[in-house]
Each structure stands twice: as C-alpha cells, then as structure tokens.
Fold each of these.
Amino acid sequence: MLNLVYFKEYSIKKNVHSYRQGDLFIAHDVNSGSLHVLDEGAYDVIKAIEKLQEILETVNTEGICQVLRQTGKTVIAEELSEILDELEELRKEGTLFSAEAENVLPMYPEKPIVKAICLHVAHDCNLRCEYCFAGTGAFGGSRMMMDVETGKKGIDFVLESSGHRDHCEVDFFGGEPLLNFGLIKSLVEYGRKAGKDHGKTIKFTLTTNGVLLNDRIQQFLEQEEISVVLSLDGRPEVHDRMRPYADGRGSYAKVTPLIKQFAAKRPESSPYALGTYYYVRGTYTHFNLDFDRDVLHMADLGIKQISVEPVVASPKDAYSFQEGDLEKIHEAYDRLGEELLLRRAQDRDFNFFHFNIALDQGPCMIKRLSGCGAGHEYVAISPEGDLYPCHQFVGQEAYKLGSLYDENPHQLKDEVVKSFRSAHVYSKPLCRECWARFACSGGCHAANVSFTQSLTDVYTLGCELQKKRLEVAFYLKVKEIQQDLM
Amino acid sequence: MAKHIQTIVKANLSSTAKTGGCGKCQTSCQSACKTSCTVGNQVCVK
C-alpha cells in the first residue's frame, strides 16, 4: 500500500509527469529519469493524488476515492489496492516518486576551460533569410571575412584554453562559412597539426546553407571527416519564402539536390551527432505550423537525420508565433510522432533530432544542470577576433568577453563568465518547479535574453514547445522498447 | 509481473550529480541546432 504520508512533503506536479499520448498513459519520474507505462486506473490514481495535493494538506485513500468519483470514475476497492501496492513498490525501488535530486551545483575551475569555439569565418551571406538572427550575415556590423591570422589565433585559443580536455570542437559558422572556403581549408590543416602538437584532437563541424556545396567542397568535407549541419526548411514554397537570394529568388532548387547528394554519402550518420555526421536543419515559423509536413518532405527526399526547430523571433515579425499557434504546433508534433512510428514499422525510418532521448544513457545531472556551456566552455569568435558567449550573442557589446588580440585573450571578462555559469537550472525560478527541468536544462540563453532580457527568466513559449517535444519523445521511446520486447 | 504499471526504463539520474561532470560530451548546441539548448537530446560519451 502506497505510503501516503510521503506526499505531505513531496510534490508530484514537480517530480512526476504523467500524461496521455496516443494510446498510452505514461509516467516520467523526473529525478531518477525512469519511464513507466500505466493502465488507465493507475494513471487516474496518480492524477487524483496530484489533485489532492493542490487542494488539501493531506492525502489519504478516502480523498483519492472522492477525487476519482468526482471525475466520473468507478472505484473498485480491490483494484485501487493493487495499484497502490504497485506504486509503493516503485517508490521503494526509487523509480517513481523518487527523492528530489540534491541541489548539487556544477563546480568550475576559476579559469574557464573553453573546449569549443564557433568561428565566424564569414560575416556575409549569399542568402537573405527572413528570420536570420545574424541580420542576414553581418550580425549588425559590416560584412567581412575572417583572415587567416585571426582564424589561427582562434584555433590556438581553444587548444590553450581547453586545459586537460583532449577533445576540442571548432565549428565553422557565418553568415555563410563557405564564402570563405579558402580559410576553412587552411584552418583545418593548421588545426590538425596544432592539435597534434598539443596532444589534442579537434572535431570540426560546418554549418552551411548548401548553396556552394559543390563536388570539390563535398569531397574535402568527406576527406577531412568534417561533420556538417545543412539548412533546409522543407517544402519548396516554405523554404523559398524564408530563404531567398538577395534578388528574391528562392534557393530550394539550388540547395536541395546538393544537400541530398551530400546526405547520401553518410548513410551511417549518428542521430546523436557522434563521430562524423550530418544533420539537415530547418526552421519553422508562424507560416508553416504544419511543419510536420516539411519534416516528412525531407524524409521523402531520402534525408535520414533531420532537425527542424521553432523560430525565435520578435513579436513584431510577421513570421513570429502568435496567440493560438501553440495548439497547432502541438498537433504537428503529435502527427509527426505517429508518422515516425508508422514509417519505423515500414522500415522507412528517419531521425528527428528533438525526439532524441537517451534516458539511462543520457547526460549526467551536472551537464543537465549547467546547460549548453555558453560563455565559459563554449565561445563564439567574430571575424575581427572578438569573443562572445555564443554565436547568437555576437555583436552585442554588453556580452563581449574579450578579443583574441587582447594582451591576454584567455582573461575573459569575469562578470560575463560568472553570469553564464550561474544561469543554471536552479537559478531559474520557473525551472525549479518544472517537470522538464533536467531534460531542457533551462533553455537557450540567447532565447531567454531575447524575450526577458535576463539569463534567469525563461522564454515561456519555448518551455511549452520543449515540454511537448519531450512528451512525444518519451512516447516514441516507450513504443520502441515495447517493440523490442515483442 | 505488475498488473497496472510496466516499467520501461529504470534510471538513476540523481546519482550522477556526484559521479558526473567529466565534460567530455559535445557542446550540445553545436551538434544540430544552433538555436536551442539540446542537452537532453545528447548521450553521455563517458
């Protein structure tokens, strides 16, 4: 019989997320990370206890029965007793209603260990995407290319700042980085050698719109084992509306065959972005709330690794999400989940990045609490050599961490480093009480600042989207495991 | 076997607050997104 006294201090709302998705009732235990499938009776009992916690100080069997009856449920004493027994067993086991994780905060050395950089090799672009946070490539500044001296200093910076970490990451970013392909070639060669000299390995990635992805460049990326994130929004009309050339022509017809060709070279690409991989990445906006059709369009092109994300935009932008959009977005995620299941059964599987959920093999609690590492483990470097917490903060003077041309470039601006280090899950009032806190890690710093002007107040629409994605991700995980057990 | 509840994944995330933090995992935002924090979509590479 479930120890109901336990619930005097223990909040179900915060620590167990139970919900219905498709034909399943699912319970996610937040602190242990465990996942259970419930029958309707067990689901109703958990919800009844949760409800009682909202209205009364004590939870008892009589109260549970009362709530169940008020919601039109028939209470069968024997069945209720069985459910309470099973719940107690799981509680004792620590996989349901598990104790709240201790507030262990991430510990950092005084000097930041920067292991990853985003090199803005080109602040210019051959496209004029409507929603570009880079201001169509220039990040609010002038259009310019990074020179080789600055690029090499950037590589030296990450090798020297990464302390005992033997793996560093360098992402070539822009604008459109392939506008400065010569520099990329030089820096890969330089980075391989400099890495060796430091006893380290550099993992290179490239984020590109695909316009310049010709055979020569594809061959180079293959030969150098560079992971690539390629931008494609989906259906031709959706892509072309948001991703035109400067003269207004759409770019779909140009980039799609090249992206398909490149994706086909990497059939074994890891969904978890391990090793040398590719992802085709799109953005959805108010204009394509049925973005599941865009994901499926890409899958129908033969693309297996797909990430399509919500736009982060100012409310004044016509493409920003509006009141009433949330329900449609939720429906799109639901449809996408069901379609994925269907295609999985037909051996036409593809991967949707935001439905990745490793659970027992996922990141540790420390990583989940600390988030993306922007501003102390990860920095972005502008073409001029200025250092910022991440690519989305580039050009924002208040967040500038320093410059590669400073006397000591490793001396990052202390107050900025501290503000990012301390923007962990427990520092965010809404996150502390949220069931999704260890899966979402407090959200994107740049999105939070953009909407709330604070690193510790969150972008709440983003929270709702994240929670929905998690619900579908758990559902797909359950289905996958159930299928394996059959 | 339980009649009303089927455990799909047994995990012990809380315990990794003491054992984790090696920092070897890839920077989440670099991997596939660039506009959202995707720590929960990663795996531990330890």
Amino acid sequence: MHFTEYVAGAVLAVDVMVVFVSVVFRYFLHSPFDWAEEVARALMIIQVFFGAATVLARSRHVGIDLFRGMLPESWQPALVQFSGWIIVGVSASLFASSCELLVDSYSMTTPIGFPQWMYVYPVAIGSLFMTLFGLANAVNGPPRVVWGTLGVGLAMVAFVCAWNTWMPTHAIAPWMLLTTAFLGGLLLGLPIAFVLALSSLVYFMADPSLPMLVYSQQVMAGTDHYVLLAIPFFVLAGLLMEANGMSSRLIELLLRMFGRLRGGLGLITITATAFFSGVSGSKLADIAAVGGIIMPAVRKTKQDPNETAGLLACTAVMAETIPPCINMIIMGFVANISIAGLFMAGLVPAAVLALSLAAVTIYVGHKINPDEAFDVRTPMLRLLGGALVALIMVAMIGKGVTSGVATSTEVSAFAVMYALVIGWLAFRELTVRSVVQLFVRSASMAGGILFIVAAASSLSFALTIQQIPQYLSSFMIGFAHSYGSTMFVLLSMLIMILFGAVLEGAPALIIFGPLLTPIAAQLGVNPLHFGTVMVIAMGLGLFAPPVGLGLFATCAITGTQVKDVARPMMKYLVVLFVTLVLLALVPAFSLWLPTRMGL
Amino acid sequence: QAPIALRLSSSLAADQNSAHFVWTQLMQTNLKAAVGDQIRIDYFPNNQLGKEADVVQQVKVGSIDMMTTGSSIWATVTPQFGMLDLGYLFDSYEHVAKSLDGGVGAKLNDMLQKGTGCQVITWAQHFGARSVYTKQPVKSLADIKNVKLRVLPTPAFIETFKIMGAIPTPISFGELYMAAQTGVVDGFEHDAATVVANKLNEVVKHCWTTEHLFSPMVCVAGKRAMDRIPADLRPAFLKAAADATTQQRTIGATKGTQAIEELKKLGITFAPMAKNERDQVRKEMDERLWTGFAKQYPDTAPLFASISAARG
Ligand code: NA
Ligand code: NA
C-alpha cells in the first residue's frame, strides 16, 4: 500500500516537472519537446491506476450505502463481504484483460514512435495491485461469511455461463446483464467506479464480438487524455494552498472583516469557498480547506454547526463553475467544448448563485463576535499576506489561460509550482515531509476521481456499441421538437440533477455530455451556456440529500450527520434550484463574459 | 437471415464536409444496390468508439470491423505507411490516385496484411490539400522561419516542418483553437474543410497554400470482418468500395475548392507558394527525408521510385 501510494506521488511530481519544463522550453527557448505530451499521459496512467489501488487498500473508493441500508440489518455483513468479492473479480478481470492487451501492444508504437506498451504496463501492474488489495479486504471477516459469499458469487457466474451456453436461444442478452449489474451494484453499495466497471465487464464478457482485451483498452483510454492532467495538478495546487497556510490566514481575515455583520459567518463561508475554488480544481479540497477552518470557529462562537455544514455543501454547488474546475474540464473534453470558454462562462453564474445564497444567509443569520473564534490573534499584516498570495494565484490562473504562454491544461502545472515556491517563501509553513505527503495524497485523490472517469468511459463504450446514444438522442430530439429548446434545456438539467446524484457527478457528465450537447447545438443553444447549466445541475445532484455523495463528504469533514443537516440545508437548496432555473432560462448570464472576451 | 452488421469507426463528424462520412454514405448506397440487406454498415463518427490509435488495435482484434482515417495512424503498426505523410511527396490528388492505384497502394496493403492481418479496402482521398494557416502573414520560406506551428504529432509531419524552418509544436487538436487564439502557437497546418468545420478561421487570418500534403483517406478492415463476409459476396463488397472511392474523389475536388472559397468569404487571405520555393523544398525533402526513410525501411525504396515516376 505504501509502495503504490509513493509511486503514484513520485510520478505526479515527475509529471508536473515534465509539463512545466516543456512549457518553458516551448515559450522561452522556442524548442518544444515532441515527446512531452505522450510521456505526460503515460505518467498520468501510472498515477491513476496506482492511485486507485491505494484508495482501494484504504477502502476509500466512494459509494453510497443508502440502498443497502434499507435491507435487513442481519444481511449487512454478507452484503459487504459480497461487494468485496465483486471488487476482486472486477480487478482480476481487468488484470487478465490488460495482460492480453499488453501482448497485443508489443507490435505497436504510439503516433510519435514510442512503444505502445508504455501505456499498458501501468494498467496491468496497477490492476494486479488492486486485485491483491481487494483480496486482502475480501478475506477479512468471519470465515463462514467470507467463503459463503464467494460461493454464492461463483455460483451466480457459473449459472449465467451455463445458461447462455446450453440455452443459446434463450440466452440472457448482454444489455440485460449490464442493467442487472448496474442496479445490483448500486443496491449493494458497491463503490461507484466498480458499479460502472462491473456493468461494462459483464457486457464485454457476454458479447461475443468484443474480445476481452478491448475492456482494459477502454478503461485505460478513459484516462488517457492530456487535458485530464489538469485534474491531479489542480487538486495538488489546492491542497498545497491549504497546507502552506494561505487558507487559514484568508479565513481569519474574512472573519475579522465580516464577523460582526448579520449572517457574517454565512457570508464568510460563501466568500471563502469562492476564493479557495479560484485556486483549486476539486470541490472536496475546497470543502476540506474551508470546513476544516471554519467549523472550529462556528463551535467556539456557539453557532449551529448543521446550518453551516448545509450552507457549506451549497457553496460547493455555487463554486462548481469557478475556474479551475475538474467537472468543467471533463465536460469540455467529452463534449468537445472549449475548456477555457467554459471557465469564463461559469464566472457570472457562480456570482449569481453566490448572491442568492448570501441573501438567504443575511435573512436568517446572526451576528458573532470574531474575538471568540480565535484563541490567538494573528497580526493583520500576515492575514493580508495570505489574501494577497491567494489573489495573485487567482489572477495568475485567469491570466495564464488567456495569455498565450500555456494552454489551460499547462497552466495547472504553473499553479502547482506557484503554490509550492511562493507558498513556501511567503509563509514558511511547508516542510519537505508535508510536501511529500501532499503529493502522495493528491495522487491518490486524483487517482480515485480518474478511476471513476476510466470506468465510466468503458461503460459508455458498451452503451455506444449497443447504440443507446442514438435511441436516447432521437427521443430527446423528438422531445425538443414538440416542446421547444427551453424545455429541452430544462429536461437536460433535471437529468443531470438526477444522475449527478445517482452516479456521483463526473460519470453523469461523461455519459450525457457528448449525447446532449450536439442536440443542444442543433437547437441553437450555445454550448458554453448549455455546458455551464449541465455542470451546475450535476453539482446540485451531487450535493443534495438523500444520496448526494458530496453532502456525505461535507458532513464527514464537518463532523455532522446528513439527517441533521438536510433540514436546515433545504432553504439554501431551494434557492439554488430556483437560481439554476433562472440561469438556464437566461443564457446572457453565462454568455456575457465569454462574448466580451471574444471566446 | 439476419444481416451482417459491420462497425465502421471514424474520427470525423457525420457531416457532408467530412471525407469519411461522404465515402461511407456512398459505400452504404452501393452496397445496398449490390447485395441488398445482406450486409449493413453501422457508422460510428466522432471517435465514439475510441481515439484512432485505439481503434487501430480494435480493428486488429476485431471488435471494430472497419475504420476510415488518414494513412499516418496505421504507421503505428506498419511503419512503412508513414511514407505517405512525408511533405511534398505528392503534387496533386491526381498524382496520389495515379501512384496508389498504380501499385503503391497494393504494395503497402501487402505489408499491412503480413504484419496485422488487416487489409486496405480502398484508398480514397481527403477534401483538399493541407496548407499552413497563421495569425501573421507568411508567404515564403523566409517568413516561416521560427514560426510555431501546430502540426499533427507524428514524426513525418514534425520532420517536414523542421526542414522548412518552422518550429513544429505538438498540441492536441482539442486545444488547438484556444492555443492559436491566445498565441501559444502562431498557426497550424490543416485542410480547408477542417478549418471551416472547426471554426479555426476565427483565430487565424492568413493561409500560405503550401499544399505540403495531399492526404489519402484509407479504409481498412480487420481479418475477422473480412471472414464474416461470405466468399460469394466479397467481390461485390470490394467493388462497392472501389466505386464509392471513384465517386468520392470527384466530389472531393469540388469540396476542397468550396472550402477555400468559403474561407475567402470569411476573410482569410490566401498566398500561393512560389513555384521555385516548392521545387527547392521538394528537393530538400527528397535528400533529407525521403532518402532517409527509404534507407530505414528498404521495402519502400521502390515505392518512392514509382511515386516519382507518376509525377506530372
Ligand atoms: Na466478449
Ligand atoms: Na475551482
């Protein structure tokens, strides 16, 4: 476990250097590296699969056990054990498939001329580790349950194989197996990445036209895109800004400035998330940074932690479109929309959402005494320093994306370098040890996110082979013709809220983004407007009770319970929803800034 | 009896300006006329089944039956295919057709079939030659010195532009619009139809018609796909493809000119490459690029000779 996480962390560090140095060579020395992109991508695949293995070892892959919780209490241990065996089965199949892929790849090169196996080895080795770690988890329990659940699992596989072999005329169709695996996985509370990977795995196994090596190829291909590099990089930048002392200074400054206003604590939560979101790409990093600092202040000033936790979860929805943003990167890449354009399009909607949340918090809020919140008063100069460093980074990312030095992907490597060097120079709080830990943590965190992306793309391949996108898009086109493009946008929005909740965010974008965006474009809806609305809607689903994973994460970070937070959160959610409908109806909110900047 | 459904993948959109889509539609029509409903082609545009490098592998193992592409991606399994992307190898699409139909295509197909089991169904063409598009005016070899150009990230393209004096800059196509707009690159090389389709005309002003590459479009089918087509239908299948190519080449000539006219209307200025410069560059390519390639892959030497013989 330590081995895989340190490998992933070290590779992340090398990858940052490769991208950073290649930009320097291109922009300042005018001699770009031909190989940089392919090498950077290969390094990212190592991070993803080694990171995913680490996350598995720690049992940290995200999933929802709400549905499983509805089943009888006495079944729970067996169901958990059964999930463990499914994870072993999926990982082992991925390993077997990637070995086949490896053999086939020895006779191929990449377009630039490297051996193709350099992409495949990380998948093979990573999935081997996943199998081993999964196995360690699966055998960990009372022997009767461990071997009993394994027996049931194997019997189910044997039954399906036997049925399809001996009853070819009544064979269970691949799509039925896919659907059953998907619903069954959700019910079991299987981590979402494995729900997706399992559904596509059974499809590949059942469809005779799909050789198994294509399974690992599609899982690998899901993360093999240069633009997705921005995800680990922006996650890392965010964690570095938290660790280097910037975020605690920023929040203390805000508390001293606004604490005495009515609803001050809420206003600070909104401002701090917005600010932090401007330097980080990951919502979870934003919430951890803001929640970790603001919750102690909430408790010391005797405010309601559930109220603040609910608001914090809603600020994450608001900040969904503040660049840099992982989900916008994913949306831009799957639906072929300009990522930089999306970054600009998201700013005004985020501001509108922030204002609507601020209005509620002022209406319901109280005043607090900032002096009660902190035991020690940090000198003002240091607090201002923290704010300045953050401001410069926000400006640097904004400027970087529009300046011509680097592409929006490459800017993320600059953000990491800035957070490291300036953060260290300005606050002197980073130690070598803590920086190493951060690289390791971000590699695992990004590995966890990107493994979901990988699994989702293998599922979307299966759906494409099954021609589902064509059926769904002809339905949506028919719907749009009967009810108009506005209703189409609103329906798409509802689909994203629903699947954002069920699929934990990104997979909803991967599956529906490429499907709905071309239809929107045909109907004359601007893709930047459409993309922005889709991303916010997905975020709303992700953070809404009862299944939204983002809400569970927020509660874990703030030490609260979903059942306590849900009620005080409702008023903020309703306002967010109403504002989102407004944003969907008035494209000018998202298009004003990109139009002015000529994007 | 259920029809044989063949999966055909393309990286381009299902659009009348796409050489792949136009060929596929013609193929579908011809096939229907020849064999009725016995064979059907399902078209998967826009890299829906994976990016080209992955689709090559899938055609090899049989999960995808056919693929329409430029020739360069097949160099990842049969490096000799890379020769067709070397700069200034062809003077026109007539030259491409004459060379490929006159034996070069068959020889390359043999190499592909020996190495992978896949086979070339047909050599069609893209719509219009590839030229250089820039933000600042570039009209001569002197102007292109040290200009950062996004080129297709393959050795053949990179070397071609290094010899011309530019700085070839590999950037993924998805980031090209922004990269050209903000000035990460000063320009790029592509065919006019693609420039129009991707609105790249919004971020450049000038075109220097280098016509450095007349890029063939190749349709390759895997071994498993060919085995699925009953032997008695195979001649009809191949004839349908050959006819589609003949029709597509005629359409291609008009589409290429149309796209350039469209770009002119949109305000792009066009400067032709001077004859003496073209001759000079072609000589340099011959000495520094083609010869080296033929040395590295000796079985391509006779192919270079027949391409030269087919010239003008
Ligand atoms: Na199969
Ligand atoms: Na952000």
